[in-house]
Batch of 4 targets.
Target 1
Amino acid sequence: MPRVKRNKFYNKLNTYRKSVQLFSLAFLVAVPILVVNGIYSIIGNLYSITIFGVDIVDPAMALQTTILSRELIEVLIIGIILPVLLALIFGKVFCSWMCPFNTISEYWQKLTAKLFRKRYRKIKLQVKDENPNPVIFWSILISFFVLSIILDFPMITFLSAPGIISSEISHFIMGMGFGLELLIVLMIIFIEGILFKRYWCKFVCPVGGVLSIFRVKRTMHLHYNSDLCSCAARSEPCSYSCPLNLSPKSKNIYPFCFNCGECIRICEKTGSGALSFSFGTNNMSYKKGMKNSHKEEIEFSIKE
Amino acid sequence: MISLLKFLQSIITGKTPLRPPGALREEEFLKRCIKCNKCAQICPYFSIRIAHVEWGRSMGTPMIFARDIPCYVCMKCTPVCPTGALQNDVVEKENVRMGIAKINEEKCLPYLDVICRACFENCPIFREAIILVDELLPKVIDEKCIGCGICERVCPVEGSAIIVYSKEEITV
């Protein structure tokens, strides 16, 4: 693929992502409105949804139910097939493309950055240069499940921000009013706003956590070609643009990264095109001399 | 805020809520329910309400407040439950056991010599779950009562003279 085309592709990808985000927010509003008007072809919320008879279950909720009830329930296993396949092929794209919490949080982050420019910089605790250790991620996720077994309490339900948001929207439209659980979401956003930038999606969220279990070598991932990178070591447009504050050039961006493609778009703008999505397994391009052959492979995978 | 008031009310009255038809026992139910709200959404009468966070671990689970809107046992909610928290094989309304109605004889009008047949006539298990002793006094047959709460809804007495208690409350 020629450069201009590549540039366009990633630019478009980002436009698509933003419109899908808004579409899925609208979808969550539309479902209860249809239900109130007697159309039951799509029912449910983001814990579990039935679309024209096809059950889709949030893998985190399915795991929690299986652990707490100590039973394998057929429908849950069937229900997680679609989200798991999506995660296996494209990574945590549910988070970056569909999750209403991420949508709200992304816009909120932009807003606060503009509004409180000075204060924002001062208060915020953030590590710029390094990606966090994945051990933190996995231990938080496992501790949630261990805690819910010990306390015999469905914790994931309370920590699933997309689930809470979607069910609250449906309550409100069906005339049951907002519940206090919306405070959980507001609190998460509040802490994100003043303390830790995007800590929830990065470390804590159990929904994204369970989705990132389903990751293999061939899953779509960010590919960094150091030969093409023309930015100085200090100025990194990619890491500044990352909504999760990761640095795409270094290791360990997974399991944190949710493949939103923001860094790639910025990278294309700088003109170097060192970052791209890839389904491939080999990292040969890091060695010199293999540059061109690998480039073709990336382009091939993008075309696919 | 309304739900908070309801919760405080439930503490005062010591009443645990009714679950939709076909629900498992409370402990099992809480573990199984994945809070998808499908039962509440499909309910044509808006009988099934969703518990808010003040209900603690019951948050997001379906409940029925019979005095507001009782369950009309249309049995549309059980097939949509993905986890079997509402057991899918309960399709006959006669097999539902949401709770059992209890008559407060101090308040019930026929026991106070006023003729009233509201609960008797509205019972969906007509002439079986609620019978009239001597063609006058209503009596609940525990084995037949499905606990839908229609009797609680239609009772003309303030605060209802017939109240449906959930399965948990009966066993305690």
Target 2
Amino acid sequence: MTDNNRLSVPYNEPVAVECQDVRLTVKKKMILDGISFQIPTGSITGLLGPNGAGKSSLLRILAGLTLPDSGSAQIFGKPSGVDRLGVLSMLPDRANLPGWLTVEQWLGFAQGIYPDWDADKAEQLLLQLSVSTEVLISAMSRGEEARLQLLTCLSRKAPLIMLDEPFTGVDLISRERIASAVVSELADGARTFLIATHDIREMELLFDRLILMGEGKIQGIEDVDTLRRSGKSVESRYREVFA
Amino acid sequence: MSAFRTLINLEYSRYGPARFSKKQRSLTVMVLFSLLLLLGMYLPGFNTSQRSPFITVALLLWTVSVGISFLHMASFPGQRNRDWVLTFPHSRLTLLYAKGASLLRHSLNLTLLLYIEAIVLYCLSTFTGRYTPLPAGELIYTLTAYVMFILVLLPIAVVFGLLASLIMRPGRVARVLLLPYSILWMLPFILIGLLNSQALGIYDMQYTAPSYIILYTAALLVVGWPACYFLMPRIAVNGLRQMGERSIPAAASSKAESVRKPEKDRHLSARSQSPFVTLYKLDSSRLQQMEKHQAVRILKLAAPVIAIAMFYFTSGNLNAMQSAIRLPFIFPVLFGSFWMLLRNSFERKQLPWWLGFPQSRLRLLLSGIAAVWVTVMRVNVVLGVSAVVGLLAGLAAGKSSFHEMTQYVFWLFFSFLVYTLALTLALGLLQISYYLMRSRALSLLFLPVAFAVPLQSNLINTYMFPASYSSGWHPDWALLGWTALLGLPFAVCCILAGSKYYHLVLMQKNEAVRTKQA
Amino acid sequence: MEQSYELLPEQFQINPSLPIYEQFVDAIRGRIVTGLIPPGSRLPSVRELAAGRSVNPTTAARTYQELERIGLIVTRRGQGTFVTLEEAVIAEARKTIMRKAVLEFKIIAESLGLSAEQMLNFDKEDSNDRQ
């Protein structure tokens, strides 16, 4: 854990994600305005900010779905892009899995599509997240599908996991299940999580680092432990910055 | 390799037959088969010589394969599983090839059906003595030649459809390409008119003889396939990447516009008292959004010029004029009907909101129809006026006499009315679809309606216009009148019946779910 | 060994404004000292603790590190983490809790302008009155 204010990763610690002065303009509207940060391997970082802060755009750049206008985004030391999709597992915002398939069929496809698929892990997560296998995906409730999407992300061995709003429209029990599945994934320290959300309460105990984003800029990077030592919660810090 | 195969299977399952039960599948195939057979037998033009079934199938397959692949690519950016697909850890080219291969598989399924159909049609026609059978050797030669032609053509058709992702992209190149692209795609529909003309006798020309077909096949193989191979990486890089990015611009621009516009809109809605007018404005705002697309703008400027030129140049030639007066109104009417047919699948996400409006369902349907009708008619009026301008220019240039010119205008007016009626009937008839959603069996009845839509120009050519004109020809006003008299009340019934069951459109998805689980 | 106890009570509330591992350490120490978690019991793994409470695994790991530093728990390689069997350590932990409680008591007394003795005398009189 680093205690200095800039919270850059020490030289010897491997960096999972690094952005340097990333800028993105869409139709003359500034979406990302000089984003720079680092995420150390094994951390669980919350990317927090109000709607429209540019969180999704940032994650899309990291996943190689969008190209930044300028600046560099690196995943484990190499520029992000389509060829880095093998080392990251992304849960896109407001997207659906192929609705015409049953869960079982989808998992069969996923095994073929993702080279790093771990079928045992998928089995275990099916139980842990209580996802039933015979249902058509389009017939699932939002909470159920969110759990299946997370299952798809976590059943891969990819060392970086990015979740974009994993809780939108998800019921309380599903939220708790998702949070706890994320935790048990983290325990071995081999995975790095970057979670964009505006639902702070479910995740606040999970994060060890925060990146606060607003209006396309970084409004603060915090170490959660340091924050708590000074008597602040993630939520109170969030209010401080954005209210 | 196996990941590639999985990707193909995943893409294939998207529209795959496995989504329907065996019973539904065989029923659909049978209905489709007999329907096409009836069309082939009774629509003159499709089946006038030994080769015509095969030529027709080849042409039909081109449009349909391009269409399937085009629609897939065009709708892919809007699909909610897009981001998942795009984050699969495989290169864009692999994803694209998987898409292409799965679309090709669908086209091949269809080819199997249609080719058998063509053979059956050929057999039936020889039995009924429509034409004499070919000698066995030549028949086999013809069959093989056309099969090979189709098989070589299909991958090209699929890649051509995949180009949608480049064509639909905003940009100068795309704008220039859109017109030739859509003409190439719709070529068979344009050609059907020519094929039917017995004067030309294309079906019996030597250029459609099997030996020539083999030559074309070889040419496609040598030129078309390498072109496809060259195009695929470009579509993958430029098209698919663009799609990943598209969601943000769309969101941003709509946001930006909503910031700019509200003042004006509030003004409008405050003034318009009637909820129907408001609904109509809402429906047509969707179409206006499309009109803002730059490609459409170019087309709007180009179309009148093309119409003027066409009528100017053909005004000296009676035969050419016969074909010309049918042409201008076809495309807008076809577009309107297709839009009505496919609207619900484009707007699935908005439908629950629409149906939640505290308005009668009839009103909702009518406002939707009105929006499409007015848009199409606006285009057709412009085209008609341009045509008249072209004719007047022809008169001024001394290409036609005053008498001829008035006759042409008269015919043009008839054609205009015929297509107006066709549009009105098509928009009305299509509303029956909601009624037919009540059960699986009924929904199969929708197939003939759906088929009549793209084929309406053929129906019109067959029944509304004579096979050959003379300068003394008078339009058959009585037929038009009778069609209107019988058709319009029927269309109204369809709308009324449809409005009662409009809500079923929301149940569609769930129903598929239930049958799957059962 | 069967786990017939809870490491933390189910209704345990985390205060998100204070370091979480300290809250965990305090709570678990209290439960060991009072015997709710008997000596020699096997504790859940770091992963289980973290997943069960939806906290960062580092928090859980630090909780155990801290408890181990005090000597309340021992990690036996390959077997897991156990509550110590040494009475002396538990007694020492007991004293720590008492010291802390007394300290808080004194602080409150001071804020009221009273001494600890005055507070205790008040309690005696008060309970006599109530009877």
Target 3
Amino acid sequence: MKLYKYLFAISIIAFTTSCSEDYFDVNGSVTAPTTTSLAPQYRIQGAIENTVATAQYRGAREVLGVVQYGSQNTAAYYSESWNTFLTTGSYFLWQNAYVYALPNTADLIYLGKQYNAPNYEAVGKILRAYILGMTTDQYGDIVLDETYDSESSLNITPKFQTQQEVYSRIIQLLDEAIVQLDEASPIGLNDEGGDVLYGGDHEKWKKFAYSIKARYLNHLNKKSSGELAYNPQAIIEAAEKGISSNDLNALIQYGGGEMENDNQPFSESGYGSSRFDYFSDFFVELLKNSLDLETPYEDPRLTIIVPEAVNGGYHGVVTGRGLNGESGDDFSLGNGGFYTQPNSSTYMMTFSEVKFIEAEAKFRSGDKSGAYADYKIGIRADMEKLGVGSDEINAYIQKIDATIGESNFGLSEIMIQKYIANVLNPETWVDMRRMDYSSDIYPGLKRPENVNLSIFPNDNDWIQAMMYEYNEEDRNYENMPNNDPYIRLTTPLWWNVAD
Amino acid sequence: MKKRLLLILLCFLGMQAFAQERMVTGKVIDKEGIPVAGVSVYIKNTNKGTVTDMDGKFALNAPDNSEAILVISSLGFDTQELTLGTKNTFNVTLVENLEGLDEVVVTALGIKREKKALGYSVTEVKGAAIAETQRENFVNGLAGRVAGVEVNSTSGLPGASSSIVIRGISSLSGSNQPLFVVDGLPISNSTTSTSIFASSVSGTSFENRGVDFTNRAADINPEDIESVTILKGPEAAALYGIEAASGAVVITTKRGKAGKARIDYSNSFRVDRIVEYPDIQQTYDRGANGYTNEGNEELYYFGEPYAEGTQFYDNVKNFFQDAYTQKHNISFSGGSEKSQYRISASHTDAEGFVPTTGLEKLNLSSAITAEFNDFLSADVTFDYTRSDNDQTFRGSGGPLLHLLLWPSTDDASNYLTPGGTRRDYADYSNAVENPFFNVNKNIFNSLTDRYKLNTQLTASPLKWLKFVGQVGVDYFTTKNTIVRHPESNTGKDYGGIFDQALVTTRNLTFQYYTQITPPKLFNDKITTDIKIGSAVYDYNTFSAAAGGQDFQAPDLWSINNTDLATHRAFNNLTERRLVGAFASLNASYDNMLYLTLTGRNDWSSTLPKKNNSFFYPSAGLSFIFTELEALKGIKDVLSYGKLRASVAQVGKDARPYSIRPFYTNSLTTGGGFRYGFTGPSLDLKPEMTTSYEYGIELKLFKNRLGIDATYFNKKSVDQIVQNLRLSYATGFVLMTFNAGEIQNEGIELQLNATPIETDNFSWDILANYTKNWSELVSLPGDVSEFYNSDTWLYGNVRVGSRVGGSLTTFTGYDFERNEQGEVLINPSNGLPILDTSEWIVVGDRNPDFTMGLTNTFRYKDFSLNFLLDFRVGGDVYNATEHYLTTRGLSKRTLDRETPRIVTGVLKDGNENTGTPTDNNIPIDLYRNSSYWSSIYPHQSFIEKDINWVRLRDVTFSYNFPGSVLERTKFLRTASVFVTGTDLFLLTNYSGLDPVANGNSAAVGGAGGAGLDYGNFPLPRGLNIGMRVGF
């Protein structure tokens, strides 16, 4: 039997020596980079680009009709009349935020720690706050802690957390990021040319972080108690530290080149070109009289943002109505204006928005003159962003002073200007809901045609939130809050309920 | 001169030294007096032996020892042992083996084992039986021949892939294909997946349901196969490791035989023809709601009736062609006692019944066996295959549906304008691609060059010790080219699309074992042997794909001729390494009780290191109860009886790169990486299947009747499920993980009988019966259904399994129903209401049972042999019919002008009371053509309990008798044959052929069998040919 043992030993040795442990080190793809192989400076660009071009693009696309910037050629398009896809959960900011955008930010935070690079951690947190904010503002309660974090094994039934918790987290992430951006780091943000937002300038990132903080604190105007009670001073403080000129606007600039992904998504050659058929009647008419005067005064931005119809003039399609047999040549196309040319930019946050936030906070805290001043700075900033000539800007501002003035100025004026300045930004939907879709605030705003009457039977019923995507319903239903369209689409989010 | 003398002297001396030898000669014949070649004749317990030549003669040097024993043995005959005595000439008449006691089968690692010693069921199919079916893809030749084996071919076109599943599905999402082993060497049976193409990245993607690449086992030349052994259970895996977890198809190829050189030539000429076509209505013109509209894109046939005298064209029938195939095989073989050779060549030129499709295949193979000396021998095979396959797109992009959709008032075969550009039935239409244009102008080709080298070295330094080592290389390159013509529907927006992927696979195998045969114990009653060995498998596949658009010069299909700015490339390397160490112990007691124990440990590169080593054992017991003294008296009735039982376990690893997700470039963003859709699986561990098998084998009435019955049960836990869909909130869409448990059980019966056997006439029957059950026992988390998105071919029906149900089910939607199960009707329009809240089980493809029945009749030199294939039960989704119905083409839409009332009760609030309102709302389908899809939703096209009887193949042959051959002086054998394939089908299925498979063999899991969406029926084929031997 000794012999057998000997032979067995030989057999075992024969193969174990031929294959030490590293013989099995062939399980990482060598044709695609893997999680473990990239340092943060190679990940930052993907993290920024996906925040904008996947999450924000999709967030904007799905509410383009809801906020009545755009109208499709077909009647009763889902986002305009709040039917079909919106009622079945076939609506996809969810996937874009969780699958395309958030995991990259998790990697930045994780890699930032691994490489002792707090600046990367900070950028990861800022982008994460931005995406989480956009997502919770469309859904309310969302998955927060149990989505991918780059370290733990996946939790396949992640639990949902309240919007209140998400808001606390957003503020916390931003506060931490602001601190970390002041810490030393061995790796610069733009060492590999990946910081396509701010070219590695920490101060600019900090201003961006403060701006987002101002935006989210400003959402809380109906909250009067608790940790997240409305605090206009905190908003003003954050806004003062926020984006302070158009040069600091957070944006992704497209090149308009041959590749589809080098084109602004809503432009003629972009991958979302078919999602923005026409400008809406509401938007076009608003710009024809953006100061809501008896004698309309055409906004100089009209002809810059809205393309002229083929048959001449500027006309929008009534939201929900579709072309309804009329010729498309009579209406202003969605593609081709300032925001929708192949080389346009997608704006995350602008100087003008910060000023309008500040104006609202000052207005609500009783500082009307401060608000009025910020309001006018915001308008000027937006017009400069659009390239309006200084004579036209001055004329418009003078018109405001002449016709409205500080005495007649109110919330409506701020919100109209913010609406115009934030074209294609999903933030507009938050504002509209905070303002209860009031036509006192947005003159001329009406419910869309062909509105889904079974869920929204009354004239003052407006869409309040989005359905969770059906994948959640199939695979995570125990954690998911009630997803009945009659409830979800009509129930105001936490920040929109006064307490 | 002196030297020579010395040499002779030395030789003489040498002979003197070993002396005591004498020449023994003889002749071996069968009971009819016909010489039997290839019988092995040797002296017991020595290495002296030979085989009989063509005339049944043998000659060997035997020790001059009258006690020595001459052993004469041949497969299928009783082994005879004759004491030499003083005789020098032996004329031996072989006696056919009636008891099957000495039946030998090839098992894992090419090890030949006595069948009686095996604790598990094993079935052998002779190569001749497979070759006789004349199928290019030999896998199809196995259909219906083995219990527990399901063969499913995607179409009857040359190069179509075939999937083979043994004992049901054991993996939810992974491959369920068995391991293919040729002469002990595992070979690749991969099917190219469309995910390797560069265009799958760019958005002009196509999927596995739209194309069909060959399964590469089809490269084997059926004429080279000596025998095929099907190892059904994971017992096989004990020696082949995890690759054989779904069973193994063990192929032994032909070898040369000692004796005169032989030349064998055979040929076959075939014609294939489609004889069944879908029937479509030619009463109503194009349009909607009863109003004719012959618009460019209008291909719904809900218009007004055609005008009298409208001319129709039978576009479907005009499209298919009679397909001619010819095949030539030649082999040279021979050798001496010490070494034998066989070289063969085969050329096949096959046309498909779809114009321009075809397969040209060249096989060259060689096998050399050599005995270097008394203890060292080698066996080397080398072969080369070239396969050039032109295919067509299938399913929604394939010709059949488009032929049906094409207006019958237009002659589709006229597909070009006089100027040579694409002609359409209207102005350029995007609605449908003219199938004639499709097959003539688009290109879909795969060209494979494959080399296999297999070297085996055996050393037996001592009588009880043997070392067997094997090294194999399986190397092949496939160039897949897909061209969408610049005028084609898919290509026209891009100026044509070019896609090419070069896939190179290099698999290396090293196997080695030591066999020890300890001395017998207890009066030679207990024998044992021990094998200890190890194996290393190294798999490497690299694909290089390029894609481009906008052809610059006409009719030149190359990436160089496309617009530089559109070029895309995609590389993928897949590496996988497996190492195994195994040991087995065989023990027998008194030819009555056999025990086999095995153990194996595998290490796989695809699992996390902490979990990458796993051990699994097996045990088998065989009891030949007819060896009991008490039963020896009834040997005339029960000549052989065996009870067997085995239990085995096997692990399975994951696909490469399943643990960590990798990054992809994003086409929707300006730059930088993001994750692909698949999340990390850091804790992956091997899945484990445990199977139990019990069986009985009986041979009755001197082997005139044989029965082999098996029951098996296998349970797989910790299934490695690929592409399990996630809650997106996790951060990913798909994930690979250990999830769920599945169970399979089944009954397999095999029966062979010889009802009639006389000198001139015999009738043999070979029958098999299979019944399987399966259950999806559990899935992880909240997941209640598992489905493979590739099988979601058409509408709201897919191959999905729900927990607690079978693995072979369809899932879909059902109507809303009241508590009594009556269909609820919408009171406002009279249409039934579809309940889209949940995917429920709407059908099961699993048949109640299947049966194969082979009958062989021999009369003198004529023989007739046919295989009938029966299936009872099992559902088929006739998606083609749904498509035709909602397009207004199906004949069932002819009574459209009669208003109808859908049976059901109104959903008016009373539906669950004692008095529901019966539906009384008539629907006017003529004026509401969209209602067709409401009253006939997808799931209503699942045809239940489909049965068939199919004449798979029938061969009639004539062997020229020896008397005729002798007169020719040079012919050794000669025969002519006629073979028919798929000549006859009797079924209750309303579509063309229920054998439909809507996917290719590249699809894992429960596969795409039973999905009929634009599938071609199997053609009827007729072959004639001859075989001659010189």
Target 4
Amino acid sequence: MKKRALRGGVWLALILPGVLFITVFMLIPLFSILFSTFSADGSFSLDNYGKLIQSVYFQQVFGRSVRLSLLSTVLCAVLGFPCAYYISRYSKRKGLMMALAVFPMFTSPVIRSFSWMVILGRKGIVNQFLVNVGLFSRPQSLLYNEFSMTVGFVQLFLPQMILSLLGIMDSIPEDLTEAAGSLGAPRFVAFLRIVFPLSVSGLVTGAVLVFTGCMTAYTTPQLLGATDTQVLSTMVYQYAMSLRDWVQASAVAMVMIVVTMLISSVFNRLSKKINPMAT
Amino acid sequence: MKKQHHIALGLITFLVYVFLIGPLLIIMAASFGEQNALVFPGQGFTLKWYAQVFQMSSFLRAALLSIEIAFAATAIALLLGVPAAYALNRYRFPGKNAVKTLFLSPVLIPCIVLGFIMLRYVVNQWNLSVIPSLLIGHTLLSVPYVMRVVTSSLANFDFAMEEAAGSLGAPKGYAFFHIVLPNIKSGIASACVMAVINSFNNVSLSTFLTAPGVSMLPIEIMGYVEYHFDPTIAALATVMMLVTLGVMLLIEKTLGLQTVV
């Protein structure tokens, strides 16, 4: 093998097409927009970011993105954890349960957001129910606000949380909890002291997927939000397509990249560190 | 171990699954309603919305384009990714990690940003038309899937087999196509499935790349539901979900669903 490597050339020919493709069509454009955000009138300047950060509108949009992503991540964790635990430990049809989580994941996000437009609309079943129960006197719009966006986000990313938790929970030997039980630990204590600490790394992995997913999702905020509930991704789209303000669109895009990369690299490292099952 | 029951957890799981799947079932049910407005529960039973979907040329055109782009982009991603994954596993050379990171990097960039840079540079600066730009963008989306799955299948492949073929006189290319490739074909198949589904469902990238008469299916649907609210989309969504179900069954029968996700 060493001899082949020394002869060289072959590996270069094999990687070169892909390297060139990604460099030309992704890296060069990315660095170009990065440079464009750091220049004003041809010289280096931080003005574009200064303008962005000082704009109340951007602050609101950024705050909303972070807030909704955090809220959705917490909701996914709270809903996903008991589900994954049940499927991993009690379910007799694990394969089916996994398939049912994968099915929505494979379904177009447009269709999934659209389904909430049907359900939460004025004539939707949620409104019918709330009017019948007497909570509302007449149908209220439950759509095009942060509530409907959060519902959409949670439904969009919950399967990812469930699957990454399942992955880690399935690797916890059942002997551990059984041993704890036979030594007298009540089931809940065994769960709290054994299963939960061992699952935290899966929880962190899932949380990173959900958070970065929500921070960058476009379909859900576009269909279930409104013009006064913009998030970063719809802001990039608006600046680029409606306002044709390339520089501001690029600056917002850079903010998105930096935030998502920072969050995922920090937390994925953390997740590896705290996973006692690794190595 | 005998599986025990846990009623409270079971109930929570059931409700969460209702939340996940219920909305999709409601769409399916609403697609058969007779009213012109999309309501659930609807009245009567009709298939007229299905007839209507298949008469709407804009949806059909968009669906065809989506399918073509998904398959073509995946094919290009294979041509770029498989040789690179092979080189990374087979040869020693400097900067391996950087190369691997480069091939995985498109997944780190938010799709909405990828779409934006496609529009900003590939379309507006370099004057490529929309369809090649869509193809380039979707290839970028697919390359990381190919890289990730194929490198992990190659990690389990024993290159001594290829060496053996070589020492028995097989030319390099012959050994690759007859020894290496057959051993990693299920990895390649699952990478393809994921890449095609991901490309077909993508919105954030494709939304920047439209021209009169040219748009991908999800974009066409989004444009429609912003102004219309009738069961046509429910019918279309049902057709798409049935296809998804079919694909999942096929995966389960051939590769096993667990290997894909």
